[in-house]
Amino acid sequence: MAQDIPESLRFEVLGLLRVLRTGHEVDLGAAKQRAVLAVLLLNRNIPVTRDHIITAVWGDAVPTSAVNLVQTYVAGLRRALEPRRARRAPAELLTSVGDGYLLRVERDALDLDVFETGVTTAARLRAAGDLAGAARVLEDGLALWRAEPLGGVAGLFAEVERGRLVERRFAVLEERAELRLSLGQGADLVGQLTTLVGDQPLRERAHGLLMRALCQADRQAEALAVYREARRVLIDELGVEPGPELRRVQMAVLAGEDPEPIRQDVPAPAAAAPPPAPPRPTVPAQLPRAPVALIGRDVELRRMDELLAADPDGGLLLVVSGPAGVGKTALALHWAHRVRDDFPDGQLYVDLHGYDPNQDPLDAGEVLNRFLRTLGVQPGDAPVTVEERSALFRTLVADRRMLVMLDNVLGSGELLPLLPGSSSCVVVTSRRRLVGLVAHAEARLVELDMLTVDAAVEVLGRVAGRGPSTEVDALRRLAELCDGLPLALRIAAARLAVSPTLRVADFVAELDDEHGRLAALGLEDGEGPVRVALDASRRALPPLAARLLALLGLHPGPHATKYVAAALARVDAGQAQRALDALAAANLLSVGEPGRYGAHDLVRVYTRTLAGELLPEERREAVGRMLDYYLHCADLADGLLPIGRGSVRIELRHLPTEVPSLTGATEALTWLETEEANLLAVADLAADSSAPVFDREWLVHAWQLAYTLSRFFWLRTDHETWLRVTESGLRAAAELGESKAKFVMLFNLGTALLRLRRQDEALERHQEALDVARAAGDLDQQARALTTVADTLQDFRRMDESEAHYREAIEVSRAAGSRWTEANAHHNLGLLLLVTGRGTEAPTWLRAALGMYREVGEQCGESICHSDLSAALLAQDRFEEAAASARSALSLATDAASPYHQALAHDQLATVFDRQGAAGAVSHWQRALALFTDLDAPEADQVRARLARTRTTSHTAV
To answer: CA 131: distance to chain centroid?
Structure first.
């Protein structure tokens, strides 16, 4: 079945970027994901480095998380292109290659390739004298162009490639015209070439072709007029006279001669070059450096030697298994280097990352790709399917005696395609025993356990640089504390090595003092305690760094900054930064994006264990300071967003003394996007009244965080997350019993439900909010609720009730002095008048709303109101006013840094231009589509449909 997948896919770049599976369009995801696909398609069947993809997609504005984003987009494309592929099955079409990716596309699966194949065929037919056949082939190829190429893909890379492809199309249009002129069909070409010259007035060849076509139609005077216009344009725009070919045509027309050039005989094709000599076989030597010394593994090494000696003809498959940190890779590498001379055809090595928490395991297809490249197979020649790659791999090594090491393997299934023929030896390391490999491939097991105390003492002495001394007993005790686990032994020994004055006995006493009461911290799958080693690393830290490590266990999010660390530890940001740097230097924290610190899974569990050992009051105070920090910063960022908000006042117990610098909407949005995962995590924490340590005051944080994030989610059109956070905030508000909190959460919940088109639930929530506001006597809240209830009633086509609510909202908002609410009610009432056939009244109400929005500084409201005013004016065929209002909407949305409102404005501008029959509609719809798709907004489908209706109208005229 996997082999059928590529045949069912068709890729299209000569118009909207699309992928079709058996005629049905594939959902390609967000705009940036589509951009990644565009890069891969235009470099099909060639490895593309990750850096090249990042530069192509983001240009100079590369985010710090670009590498992770590319990995996410590639994973999304794999799911879209191969939906039937099992979760851990190897990718067939989009594979990892080195530090990049390769997209395999069959020659006829991409419309651009079909087009270029046609161009090549046409050239061959022309060379053979079949001009009519060549013209027909080019006609078929040009029919593949549906609209502007790479539609829906934004960015500099797309613009450059789009320009290149458009240029290519014009060149082929000219070639087709040349062929038809040679066939004497010039009279039929005049209209098409006139359009081409109008679109591309600087193309001299197009002017010449049009002059020749006019001459064939006996319209010589018009041909000379075309020359004069071409000369004028070239001088005005470029400051140059027409070239020799255009002047030749002019002179021929003036002389009354035939302007058609004399056809030259086509030279015979050159003799085919002899095939290149096959490349010499590559002798790889990929084994990493072996450990300097291997202690305590003599028994296992002898067993491996004996197994090899018992199988002198090759075919040995060894599986070295054991718990994490026990030294499997060290043993396998040590033995592989010892016996490498027995395998003269080389060694292959790959780390499959089966247990790496920060990297996806390599699949069999990718491993085979690496092996095939090492063995001399060119990237474009590697087969598509895993089965074919495996067969080619076995063929290439069939007569070779090689050593293959597969390190950190997760399971047996992915190994079978990687096994070479019977003359080579394979060494596998895994935390599992891989009994499937024993059953199906007669693998031999070499199982590792913890080191004996004597061997552990030897490891400690050698790594720590402590020779035989009176501290033997202390070393033995330290070995026991480390459970004989090589990883823990080496960490403890490193502690002694960097502290030459530290006596082993003192170090042991330091550990032994707490060892009895410290819970063992297990590795993955519960294998082996290393708590003692981590404790040793912590004790080597400065006091603040050691304390901060425990406090970070209270942080629920994936990464921390110096500012939240300062809030947790109640120190200034400079001290927090130095403590974080000390933790990173000790390999207890890692630095991902600049200034953001995270912990690997093992250390993360360790920090939570440390946090659990803090006094309850210390934990409660630290969490409270952290919640205050995030709520304060979220409130600051929310206040900078270009959209009006309510009057909720944020009051904190611990006002942070140092916070990130946020000076405008762009910085605010960037901070919210970067901190989104942390903000969601702390909102959940604040709402969890069942947590071991909880303060009722944190419920205020829960609903106020939901409130401060609501406009961010609205601008991002992330309605699902908005709904989830607001539902949690409503539960917190209900538990608190505060009417204002309950109103805010009910109001926002209803708005989120509206965006999800769940109108019945939205109306119910907004009516509840209205009841709460009336009971509290809050006029501003009543006006807001009346407007949103009216909005939903309009969705239900209950127009009279809706209008009554809008008019009541205007009266109540005036009484409350709430200009924003009054503006919103005017705005929505204007829209209601438009849809109920009273369009001539609508602009008056919309313009009144514009003035109020401007008065309160509501840029996003003003922008969308301009878009709606444009629609109202367009309904009256007031084209110029409609275009002007749409341009104002776009300008305001750009100033407000709101991609959603920019997309709305582009969509409206495109609609105006389309109704006018003016140029530019497709371009604006392309931009709207890219923005809506990037936001995952439902409007993307509507814009895509509009583009589909207009495709080919401006590109098939020639």
So the answer is: 48
Residue-averaged pLDDT of the chain: 81
Q: Which conformational region is residue 196 in: left (phi greater than 0), alpha (psi within -120 to 50 degrees), or beta?
A: alpha
Please state, in angstroms and as integers, the Cα–Cα distance from residue 753 to each residue in 124, 126, 193, 745, 792, following that order: 61, 63, 54, 12, 10
Rounded Cα distance between 316 and 309, Å, is 10
Contact yes or no for 559/614 (Cβ under 8 A): no
Q: What is the pLDDT of residue 96?
A: 80
pLDDT at 331: 92
Kindly give the pairing relationship between strand 100-103 and strand 94-97: antiparallel
**Secondary-structure percent of the chain, ordered helix, strand, coil, rounded to 5:** 60, 5, 35
Give dist(CA 97, CA 373) in Å, integer.
10
Cα-Cα-Cα-Cα dihedral of 681, 685, 687, 689, to 10°? 160
- The CA distance from 145 to 148, in Å, is 8
For every residue of 524-546, DSSP letters joined together read: GGG--B-HHHHHHHHHTS-HHHH
* Model confidence at 586: pLDDT above 70: no
Among candidate residues 684, 712, 678, 713, the one with its CA nearest the CA of residue 698: 684
3-class secondary-structure state, position 404: strand
Tokens coding 924: 């604006």
Beta partners for residue 429, in sequence order? 320
CA-to-CA distance for 774 and 765, rounded, in angstroms?
14
What is the identity of the amino acid at 352? L
Convert the pLDDT of each residue in 253-295 to its tens digit. 777 778 887 654 444 334 444 444 334 455 788 888 776 667 8
- Contacts of residue 326, Cβ cutoff 8 Å, sequence gap at least 6: 448, 449, 450, 485, 486, 487, 528
* Range list of H helices, 452-600: 453-464, 472-481, 486-497, 504-515, 531-539, 543-551, 562-569, 573-585
2-31: per-residue pLDDT in tens? 333 344 788 998 988 889 888 788 888 888
CA angle 378, 379, 383 (to 5 degrees): 100
Token pair for 759? 């109108």
CB-based contacts of 466, cutoff 8 Å, min separation 6: 460, 475, 496, 504
Give the global pTM: 0.45
Token digits of residue 415: 């190994």
Q: Give the SS3 label for residue 587.
A: coil
Over residues 623-627, the mean pLDDT reads: 95
The string of DSSP codes covering 189-258 is HHHHHHHHHHH-TT-HHHHHHHHHHHHHTT-HHHHHHHHHHHHHHHHHHHS----HHHHHHHHHHHTT--
Kindly state the percentage of the chain with pLDDT values over 70.
87
Query: Measured between alpha carbons, how far is 628 from 222 in angstroms, rounded to an integer?
Result: 78
∠ CA 521-527-528, nearest 5°, is 55
Q: Which two tokens stand for residue 4?
A: 């059928």
CA 146 to chain centre: 28
